[in-house]
Amino acid sequence: MSRSRTALVLGTAAAGALALGxxxxxxxxxPLPAAGSTTVTPAGHAFQATLTGKATxxxxxxxxxxxxSVSTGTVPAAPGNSNPAGPVSSPISAPTYxxxxxxxxxxxxxxxxxxxxxxxxxxxxxxxxxxxLPVGGLVVKTTGLASCTVTAAxxxxxxxxxxxxxGAPSTLTFTNASVPVKVTGGFGCxxxxxxxxxxxxxRVSDTTDPAQQITVGP
Length: 218
Known about the structure:
The chain is mainly β and 218 residues long. It is built from 1 helix and 15 strands.
């Protein structure tokens, strides 16, 4: 083989190796931005979250709607109401749900909740809110033409993402939030569903001093 042809072959092989290296080289993901500071006020004040409109939980083709829901909690006392690098979390009572109906005629739902629930606020644009559900913390049972059981967070605690808006009163909103579920039952039950969508808007009032508002800031 001529010297010039050998050089050409070696050069082509080297180019191929470089190209292969470019394809197979590991890609390092860019680091996520650090969470900013969050402060929830007034520190130590109790609050109540009251549903406005209706809350819906949709699993498969079945939608359960409730028009009454309430939860209570307390803003952490200072300095726990402020976090320089992340969200502020508060324990809340398991929300109650009543006056519930089903999208399937002849089917009556009952919603029960239990366990230790939380809500976490992270200042930003928008302000984000995360509701924490314990394992099996929400169960929907239907009776009538279809007997189904829908268990939220069936195997592990779950976080449900929402948003917060400061106001008078402030509001906590969940829009098509994903919730892991397990569905059991017979005919008419969406047993193949593994997640559901949750929609609700809560008005959050300060029950320690009704003249003040629960506010999330930096």
